[in-house]
Amino acid sequence: MSRVDFYSNAPDKLMLARQIAQKAYKQGLKILILSEDEEVLNELNTRLWSDVVTSFIPHCLASEPHAHCTPIVLGTNLGELPHRDLLINLNAHTPDFFEQFTRLIEIVSTDDADRLAARQRWSYYKQNNHPLTNHDMSK
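-> structure tokens emitted (139 positions)
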């Protein structure tokens, strides 16, 4: 059963996704960062490349040929990737395949629509008995 962590009240979802991915990478995990919005993925890709040189995080878009052997992949779906350790969801809905992952991270901004969608996802996970934790980023 997947463990689900919510990071709520995030002032910058992409910055937090980068930080979480960096920490998970240092722990040796294979990570998929999921968004159906190509602009979000491209912005995160740019941020990961433009980070401090000493903290480079190896990553690529799922469409790239070496995605299967890159520790952090940014994509719109799981596809044929072997990444099953950590899923970072940037979508407003529950990913269909999240139970294939050991851990799921949901990042929620301060936007009202984003918070409402997150409440619905929280209810879904709770009803299906997934272990839930919330980390309030405003504190």
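Residues 9 and 138 are 6 Å apart (CA to CA).
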